[in-house]
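Our consortium's second objective concerns turning raw sequence data into structural hypotheses that experimental partners can test. To show how far this objective has progressed, the report includes one record in full. It was chosen at random from the queue rather than selected for favorable results. The single chain below, 176 residues long, was entered without modification.
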Amino acid sequence: MYRVAAAIFLCLCMLGASTRPVMSLSTDSEQPIHIEADRAELDEERRVTVYKGSVVVVQGSMRINADRVDFFYDEERSLDKAVFLGKPARYEQLPDNSEDLVRARALRMEYYAAKNLLYLIEDAKVTQRGDTVTGDRITYDMENNKARAERIEEDDERVRVIIHPKKESDDETPEQ
């Protein structure tokens, strides 16, 4: 579960937080951010930027696909919060020292920069190397490297975790 929990940080590098997540490709934060959408709106008074319609956000190996993306900024124009909405919104990124993408999806993803918290809300799922965590809500505290998956009380769906055994590489010979 730790491997998957550490992987659900979403787009911390892209969002410019001061802490570098352990599982992201370290060069991603040095890459330009590319955003494509059918429409973009900037409201300086409210300090919000909204992208709508088949939104694609790419930075290095990180890619987010959503129907809508809202970025909220504080008085100093630093990112305060990001909200990704989709049916579902999807995220993927290549971690350092891995050939396996981290993939996440949820109907709603919320990132809070000051607290380094990421919420995957409704139909949440995170996958890496075949290991999977699903739940109604997955919360990841990036500062303390803690994750929690949970169900909503009214919902019958329970949290599900699938962890595959680690495979030995072909060049290693098992001890006899």
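The partners drew two points from this record. Residues 1-23 have pLDDT under 50 and may be disordered. Residues 2-162 form a domain with the lipopolysaccharide transport protein A fold fold (CATH 2.60.450.10). Both points have been shared with the crystallography group to help prioritize constructs.
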